[in-house]
Amino acid sequence: MYGTFGDMSVALKSDQPVTAETLREAMLGHLRYSIGKNTPTATLTDWRLALSRAIRDLLVDPWFTTTNRIYGANRKRVYYLSMEFLIGRLLEDAINNLGLEEAARGAVESLDVDYSALVLDEPDAALGNGGLGRLAACFLDSMSTVGVAAHGYGIRYAHGLFRQSFHDGWQGEEAEDWLRQAHPWEFERSEVAYPVNFGGEARVSGDSGMWKAAETVMAVAYDTPVPGWRGRWANTLRLWSAQPVFEFDLERFNHGDYLGAAAPSVFAQTISRVLYPDDTTPQGKELRLKQEYFFTAASLADILRRYLAHSNDMTQLPSACAIQLNDTHPAIAAPELVRLLTDKHGMGFEAAFDVARRCLNYTNHTLLPEALERWSVDLMAQALPRHMQIIERIDALHAKRHTRPASVKIVDGGEVRMGDLAFISANRVNGVSALHTELMKKTVFAELHALHPERIVNETNGVTPRRWIWGCNPGLRSLLNDALGEGWVTDLDRLRALEKHADDPAFRARFAMIKTANKRRFARWLESAHGQNIPVDAMFDVQIKRMHEYKRQLLNVLEAAALRNAIRRDPDAVWAPRVKIFGGKAAPGYAMAKLIIKLINDVGRAINRDPACRGRLSVVYPPNYNVSMAEILIPASDLSEQISTAGKEASGTGNMKFAMNGALTVGTLDGANVEIGEQVGWENIFIFGHTAEQVLAIREAGYNPSKAIDADPHLAEVVDQIAAGAFSPEEPTRYAALVENLRHHDWFQVCADFTAYYEMQREIDAAWRDQDGWRRKAILNVARMGMFSSDRTIRGYARDVWGVTPEY
Ligand code: NBG
Fold this sequence. Notes:
By secondary structure, the chain is α/β, with parallel strands linked by helices.
């Protein structure tokens, strides 16, 4: 049977019909000729790789066609530079995009391999941390679906973000090794390699300069095709891996210095080893800056190479490329582009800056001052001496052109403020939700906004319905297809037509059955992966996101502890049964977030062991929350916790995924919750707590959390219990720092919002008891989430920021 592959024609062609049979043949061919295995010895992973290769073959033709079309028409391209691309698993996504679900399942099953197990065998590409990275991945999907010519540029981290485990309830971190097995989606482009320099000395002469670097590494490209819906279009995700200029020093090796011989390679590879090295040490900071420059410099070199193939008139660069800086991580692009234009292409400084600025745009993703990057001038001057000179010159040029207040400076107090550098060097600066954009204008960028009032625009985030409904919620997908036809998946506003079914009992019943099936699926997963049992008829009350004090997982766990007290006092009252589900990682250096994780696990243990809570309340916190866990948990959720301190969450995107999948939101008036409320109707969302303005006013009036604690007996009781070691009898003072912080500082106003939150949760209990009413609200949520497709967001960027017209 393998003889048929003697001609090596294992590749499927996208213009021929793909059936279970042809796919099976292609899998067998790849198993033999790409993987080098035969059927009797093939492991599950071998089969997965074989199927992935067969599917990848089908992406290649659309990919080439798209590229040729873009080249032919000399279209303006979008370059999305991002430190993170949280792409997750790719196999099922590609299969869905190409419409090959049945063929793939049929092919795999005909080989006696379990299809679901095969899909789940793929490691989750954890090249990101949270919303910012997942947004970048959703944007790639949407740019390919609406037909925007785009390249994503980032880093091919060998280990990505760490893998989280719990040891006695404490977070442990292990290196993620997603690349241990072959990554079947990428094409290594060893010929596409650029040297990236660091350190040394720089001299200025007139408008240009000379940089004699001390170290060089090579950035080597790895390309992954990103298919859009039905393969009509495919863009490229190009990730850079750092390699030594020379593999190793043979002379040192021959003298017996084996470690020394490998040193250059170790230095180079360190750069693309992990995402977010712990930057609490000077070495960590330097590494982080080098990572940022590494991928930015390689990407710009690549962009210019592509441009120069068409034209050498550098003044026209802005008509050919729009470069999006995803947060400040690639903000070094501004001085780098100016450097290339002046030092390499002989342009005058002011002209170079103007060209660069017309190419660059900057998305701000947070107003938290500690999250806005700043680099010490010393570090910048040492690692990137020429860039430091250019940054100072940009600062001076800006001062020359605009009468600016003394406080508007890029370089200040011995630091380079990357947010200001990005703002000043960008054509458009955008926030990620209406509220966040307004706050940006009033707070961090108030002065710059006054100088450049046309620069800030809003592009409210969105998520791709391909992954976040079609892929992760097959039940809902079928329901929507039956009710609306398949068009909703690329035109999410069509969901509106569901409104008329909200009062139809049969529709509601089917909707409810889908939710229950999803809850069963999650419960089965939880049991098999973590040995925990949860009742599927309870409300699944879910908070999954990075662990951060502003997101207030603490508020949630305090409420859980207070609820337990209430249940113990009156076990026979009618309680709405709940399972509180947490998921999320804390940054390795973030001690308070790690202590909150431990508290959730300690409180969870007490609740889960408490006979009074049985059947009424339980808490689970499966470790290592990632995209794949989100895909199974979000469709199973009833209640979505979006409870950040108002004014702190730039947008949120999890909030959108939940509502699209029929969970109701409990949330503050923060980030995109505001717009979600406007869309779904305020009667279909549970909003509580202080507004951003009130939060500010409370702080200014001299906030005293102890007063709030004293005023609320539920809260006072819980805080006392934690302080007395009720949840940590083996170490009663474990939470001393947390309690001290709650009583005397409480920067994120957990105590100030507690009462409102607790009361809102009891209203939610009541709403849950009316299951029909709950379902109606849930259906209306799904129906009104059309706005939150990332297709809408990308069309907005295309129009307001990039000046390109989507093909579809
Ligand atoms: C995050 C915000 C979220 C937002 C995502 C995507 C950073 C720095 N910011 O609220 O916290 O949804 O960005 O915009 O990761």
